[in-house]
Structure to design on (519 residues):
């Protein structure tokens, strides 16, 4: 077991344990803050996989954006000055069926996909490569995604206006 | 690079990595915070035509040391209805966020924690942890002033991140690199090569770029000022409204950690501005080491210039604090969304057009 493995297991443990805490914790604000560690752990795993750009995008989008919005949502919609915000469990049977199906699909794809198990010899910065790919080979998809995001923005603004 | 040097010296990547990671804290942030707190009080004093601290040491130079000894002795108060876990994690998280940024700040061509390809992008990303820490502190305090301060702070930081990123994007677009080391190296050692004055290439674009670079510089300075919650954007800790915002409930060393994070952040944003627009660690007019043929002098000079430029902008932040009144919340949001973002966006477009000319 070398340093790389040690760091990998550290990040994996952080990710899995905090993800477990997110779903089991009764206090919804605590869950949201545990999610911070989950996102952070996933970013660490991306770094270990030599995907530097994705790792930082993970931090900037999930920690800097989505998590903060989530916290705002939780804090503004509940009685904000109260520390005791609780969650409960509803719709147990449909949830179990849905999650079971999803887990099955995930497991099937994990087992069946051809993984690259060789460590990269030396890591190269991925930003330029990704940029070239996005703006040449996948340009149409990239622009379509941009339009989808724009539509979501306009929709959110028009709903907020009402 | 300092890591390679230590790796050769100690023969262990683990020890070398640990020392490299701790070096900015002990060699820079702690002395800087000691100095900056005193500077802040002295600047405040002299701007208001008084003297500031005078009792401890000559002209009060040991005042912050005395303050730190006082803070260490103070009782660590946790109120009964605080959320204990989050209340204790929050100061650490806030400091971790601002300290993580120092991993990629190029103090000189050899003193640079990690020469990562995504330097500036990384710094913008990890400072997101500061927002989470502030929200955590405000919420865990179970105090309406703390919570309001934290909400204001988070709203302000995420609004002002957009103009900052747009200006950073214009520089990245012009240079084609996000590495702070490459950015600093490219602005070679004379001040007319700084990106504030159009960059190192001496062509017609350079002169076309100058006015737009000045606009970009002003925008990024204003918005980073807002990101570190300094006056005129200090509504998150507006003393006359919110006691002291998100750290109202904190005492002793936890309070000190918030303070340390705030001063580290003040330097970090100044360092970003310096690295992007003012030549990074490059000297404005050549090196003494080159003149005298002493190679080891150059990194020291670079360190001096970088900290000098950084501390100059920290001084400007303090200067503004005692010059400008505080903005209202609606004025603050209007300043970002209605003025800075559109101007930064057009600036980005114009710089893009000039750079492909």
């Amino acid at each position: 077991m070398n340093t790389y493995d040690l760091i990998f297991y550290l990040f994996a443990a952080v990710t899995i344990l905090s993800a477990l805490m997110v779903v089991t914790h009764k206090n919804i604000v605590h869950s949201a803050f545990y999610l911070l560690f989950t996102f952070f752990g996933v970013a660490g795993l991306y770094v270990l996989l030599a995907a530097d750009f994705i790792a930082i995008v993970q931090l900037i989008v999930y920690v800097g954006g989505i998590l903060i919005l989530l916290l705002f949502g939780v804090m503004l919609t509940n009685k904000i000055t109260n520390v005791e915000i609780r969650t409960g469990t509803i719709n147990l049977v449909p949830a179990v069926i849905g999650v079971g199906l999803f887990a099955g699909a995930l497991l099937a794809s994990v087992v069946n996909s051809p993984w690259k198990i060789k460590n990269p010899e030396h890591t190269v910065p991925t930003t330029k490569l990704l940029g070239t790919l996005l703006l040449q080979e996948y340009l149409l998809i990239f622009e379509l995604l941009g339009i989808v995001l724009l539509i979501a923005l306009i929709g959110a603004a028009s709903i907020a206006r009402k | 690079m300092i890591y390679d040097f230590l790796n050769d010296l100690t023969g262990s990547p683990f020890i070398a990595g640990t020392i490299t990671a701790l070096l900015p804290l002990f060699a820079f942030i702690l002395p800087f915070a000691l100095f900056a707190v005193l500077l802040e009080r002295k600047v405040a004093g002299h701007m208001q035509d008084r003297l500031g601290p005078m009792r401890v040491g000559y002209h009060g130079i040991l005042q912050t040391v005395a303050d730190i000894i006082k803070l260490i002795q103070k009782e660590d108060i946790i109120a009964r209805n605080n959320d204990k876990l989050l209340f204790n994690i929050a100061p650490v998280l806030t400091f971790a966020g601002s300290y993580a940024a120092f991993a990629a700040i190029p103090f000189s061509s050899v003193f640079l924690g990690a020469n990562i390809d995504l330097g500036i992008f990384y710094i913008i990303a990890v400072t997101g942890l500061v927002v989470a820490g502030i929200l955590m502190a405000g919420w865990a305090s179970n105090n309406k002033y703390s919570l309001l301060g934290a909400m204001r702070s988070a709203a302000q930081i995420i609004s002002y991140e957009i103009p900052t990123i747009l200006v950073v994007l214009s520089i990245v677009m012009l240079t084609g690199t996000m590495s702070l080391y490459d950015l600093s190296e490219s602005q070679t050692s004379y001040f007319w090569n700084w990106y504030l004055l159009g960059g190192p290439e001496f062509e017609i674009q350079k002169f076309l770029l100058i006015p737009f670079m000045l606009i970009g510089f002003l925008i990024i300075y204003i918005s980073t000022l807002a990101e570190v919650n300094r006056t005129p954007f200090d509504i998150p800790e507006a003393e006359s409204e919110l006691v002291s915002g998100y750290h109202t409930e904190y005492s002793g060393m936890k309070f000190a950690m918030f303070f340390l994070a705030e001063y580290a952040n003040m330097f970090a944003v100044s360092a970003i501005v310096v690295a992007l627009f003012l030549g990074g660690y490059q000297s404005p007019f050549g090196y003494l080491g080159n003149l005298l043929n002493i190679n080891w002098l150059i990194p020291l000079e670079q360190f001096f210039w970088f900290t000098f430029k950084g501390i100059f902008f920290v001084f400007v932040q303090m200067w503004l604090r005692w010059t400008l009144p505080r903005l209202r919340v609606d004025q603050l949001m209007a300043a970002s969304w209605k003025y800075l973002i559109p101007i930064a966006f057009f600036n980005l477009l114009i710089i893009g057009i000039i750079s492909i000319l």
Q: What stands out?
A: Residues 83-355 of chain B form one domain.
